[in-house]
Each structure stands twice: as structure tokens, then as C-alpha cells.
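step=encode ok
step=design start
structure_in=
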């Protein structure tokens, strides 16, 4: 949906100057908006034991991770490189959760060495691990309401988590192997906007943790309800009521754990930063090919979601509002017909040179980009809390594109 009034009021007065001096395309993120969302999440849990770990994959850019850490957030990592990134921005120990799947032993060792809270995605991997972390958590396969979501996969076909019937035994085994602190993880939804569904899915996980605790007699240190909360991409989508979501979780925790309530952990990415970014680009072509085509100077490499999933991203021409409206397809330059940002979109008649904004690119935007076709990833800028505009990642160039090339092919076998 259109960016918030606050973001628009901060961005639009300076946008033409930025574009004139810096050029397009680039993503720009709103520090104030990100902080405000994080603070609202914290406030919704009213000081109860709760911690939000930002899913690094959504926006793995140090300046943004640092501002979230400054607010008190933790980081959620799922790969060795994300762990390294967390380390470089100063997040250590239990300020990091490691929730991977199909994990390599080397990744696990790294996670354990950093002291991160580790989630074991599968029992067979757990059985192979020689040294357990201090706290053992298992990820439970989608069950209850989550099992109905086609993105998460149903219980039979998912690649995630320990199946419910094997869960209790996994905890007993962890105890036998010396673990004394326990958590339980359940990734309950994906881009979910319906607060009732999101709440039901999360409270299913709390109930599962209580079931494990009651059956095994073990104390649950934390319940991690994962990420997956949605943001309104379409103008008529309603934002999720996070306050009601938090209340539902707290109520279920009181009900299930009257004595020793576990901490609630969350790993939201999209919900925290998604609405607080836009991709700024310029119209470089108008053509008529049976359809009205508007070409931008950005490609799918800068924002995969429309081409990859047919996902809707709101598009606006902020300085063209008074023109008559037309229906157009808005495209990038990749040699792939799916490189389209919008199909049959109504816009004020676009002209070459217009500034075009693609909204809600603050999560799973730049991070998902690739360099196919030599269309390289654009820069990332930050509108700081003080109203400054700073570059936090430059655009890729040809040297980056070629950085991994061996111009002199090297032998891969050690002949001794
Ligand atoms: C992707 C992912 C997240 C974050 O998802 P969002 O939709 O950005 O909230 C959190 N936890 C795990 C395990 C994930 O795979």
C-alpha cells in the first residue's frame, strides 16, 4: 500500500534533489518508521518476557541491523554468512537465534560457537551433533492451523520441523544427552494479515510447548512463534492488529503456563521493515505493443517478488498525480518476460523521466535480488532519524559482477 504519511512527508520533499544528484534506481529505507514499528511491537507485549529477533534474510544490510540492535532487537540467522554478518554488527550469544533447515554440520558448529540460541529443524541432524548447545529447541512441523497454509506446506509434505508424534521423544533424548534448558519453535504463517489466523497459529505453538512440558516434565525456557506476519501490500489490505495478536499469545501463555511462563520469541522480518522501504526508479521508455508498456531503469534484480510470485507491489508516480489515468504494464529490462513490476496497472499517464516508486520494498526486496543478465543490484539509502539521507550500500558495478571470476583458470585437484 502507499507508504505511510510520515515516510512520504520525510521523503517526498527531498526526493527530486536526491534523484537529480544521485540518480536512480535505489532502495531507500525510513529509519523512523522501522524504529516506530519495533517499538510498537515491544509495547504490545507490555513488558512481559518477550524478544523480537529480526530475520536477517529480509534485509541483511548492516546499517539497518545496527539500528534494530540499538532498539534492543535480536537477530535471526539461518546460514553461516548471516551468522558472520550478525557477528560483524556486534550481535553475539543469545542476541542471535539460529533457525536453519537442511543444516550443514559446519554451520551448526559455527552457531554453537557463537552461543546463539539454536533451533534444531530435524531429529536426525540432532542425533549426529556431538556437542549440544546449552539450550535445545526443536522446530515443530506445521500442525494445527499452520498445517493448512499452502506456503508452509502441510504436515505430510513440509520439509520443515520435527513431526508432532516424534516431538516428545526428541526432548526426552535431549534431556538424556544432558540438555537442561529447552525451547520450542514453530513457524506458523507466511505473510499472514488475518489476526485471527495468525493468533490461532501462534497459540497452537504455545499449546504444543505446554504439551511437551506436561508430558516430559521439562521446563520450557522459551516459545519461538517464528515470523511470517504480513503487511498490507495492496491499498485495500488491512494492517494486522499486532496488539490483538500479542494479547492472544499472552492469554494463551497464562492459560497454558500458570506457574513458570516461558519467554515468547518472535522472528519477524517483513513486518518490521517491509513497509518502510521504497524502490525509487525512473521511467526510461514508453511504448505501445498491443499493450501500453512503461519501462523503468530498475529490473527484477532489484525486486523479485512481482516477477517471481506475481506479488503485488504498489506503484506510484508521486510528481505526476494531476495527469489523466491510463492502464499500463510496468517492466524492467531483463530478457525474461516475467520481468514486470505491474500488469494492467492504472497510473497517471507516465512519461519518460518520471520518478516511479515501488512501495513496501523494505523486506525481501534488495535481499532477494540477483545479477542475471548483468542487471546488477542497485544501491540502498537510509533516511536517518535525523532526516539525513545516507548511502548504506552502493550499487553493484562490473568489478563486483566479475569479482569471483578466475581469469586464469586454476586446478581444482591437489596433485601434491
Ligand atoms: C523467513 C523466515 C522468517 C522471517 O519471515 P518474515 O516473513 O520476513 O517475517 C523467520 N523465521 C524463519 C525460520 C524464516 O524462515
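sequence_out=
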Amino acid at each position: 500500500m502507499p507508504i505511510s504519511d510520515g515516510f512520504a512527508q520525510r521523503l517526498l520533499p527531498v526526493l527530486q534533489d536526491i534523484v537529480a544528484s544521485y540518480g536512480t534506481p535505489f532502495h531507500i529505507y525510513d529509519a523512523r518508521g522501522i524504529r516506530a514499528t519495533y517499538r510498537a511491537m515491544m509495547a504490545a507485549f507490555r513488558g512481559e518476557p518477550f524478544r523480537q529477533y529480526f530475520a536477517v534474510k529480509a534485509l541483511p544490510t548492516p546499517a539497518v541491523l545496527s539500528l534494530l540492535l540499538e532498539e534492543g532487537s535480536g537477530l535471526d540467522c539461518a546460514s553461516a554468512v548471516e551468522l558472520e554478518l550478525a557477528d560483524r554488527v556486534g550481535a553475539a550469544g543469545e542476541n542471535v537465534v539460529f533457525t536453519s533447515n537442511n543444516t550443514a554440520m559446519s554451520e551448526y558448529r559455527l552457531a554453537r560457537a557463537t552461543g546463539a540460541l539454536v533451533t534444531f529443524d530435524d531429529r536426525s541432524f540432532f542425533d549426529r551433533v556431538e556437542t549440544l548447545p546449552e539450550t535445545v529447541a526443536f522446530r515443530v512441523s506445521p500442525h494445527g492451523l499452520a498445517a493448512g497454509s499452502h506456503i508452509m506446506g502441510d504436515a505430510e509434505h513440509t520439509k520443515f520441523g520435527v513431526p508432532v508424534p516424534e516431538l516428545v521423544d526428541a526432548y526426552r533424548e535431549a534431556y538424556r544427552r544432558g540438555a537442561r534448558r529447552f525451547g520450542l519453535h514453530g513457524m506458523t504463517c507466511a505473510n499472514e494479515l488475518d489476526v485471527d489466523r495468525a493468533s490461532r497459529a501462534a497459540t497452537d505453538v504455545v499449546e504444543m510447548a505446554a504439551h511437551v512440558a506436561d508430558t516430559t516434565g521439562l521446563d520450557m525456557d522459551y516459545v519461538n512463534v517464528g515470523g511470517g506476519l504480513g503487511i498490507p501490500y495492496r491499498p485495500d489490505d488491512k494492517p494486522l492488529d499486532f496488539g490483538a495478536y500479542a494479547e492472544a499469545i499472552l492469554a494463551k501463555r497464562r492459560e497454558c503456563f500458570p506457574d513458570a511462563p516461558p519467554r515468547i520469541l518472535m522472528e519477524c522480518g517483513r513486518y518490521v521493515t517491509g513497509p518502510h522501504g521504497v524502490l525509487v526508479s525512473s521511467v526510461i521508455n514508453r511504448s505501445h505493443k498491443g499493450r501500453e508498456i512503461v519501462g523503468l531503469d530498475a529490473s527484477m534484480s532489484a525486486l523479485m517478488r512481482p516477477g517471481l510470485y506475481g506479488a503485488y507491489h504498489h506503484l506510484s508516480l508521486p510528481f505526476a498525480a494531476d495527469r489523466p489515468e491510463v492502464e499500463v504494464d510496468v517492466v524492467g529490462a531483463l530478457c525474461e518476460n516475467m520481468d514486470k513490476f505491474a500488469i494492467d496497472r492504472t497510473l497517471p499517464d507516465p512519461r519518460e523521466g518520471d520518478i516511479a516508486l515501488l512501495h513496501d520494498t523494505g523486506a525481501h526486496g534488495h535481499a532477494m535480488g540477483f545479477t542475471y543478465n548483468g542487471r546488477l543490484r542497485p544501491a540502498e539509502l537510509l533516511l536517518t532519524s535525523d532526516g539525513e539521507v545516507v548511502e548504506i550500500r552502493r550499487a553493484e558495478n562490473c568489478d563486483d559482477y566479475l569479482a569471483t571470476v578466475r581469469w586464469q583458470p586454476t586446478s581444482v585437484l591437489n596433485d601434491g
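step=design ok
step=annotate ok -> The radius of gyration is 23 Å.
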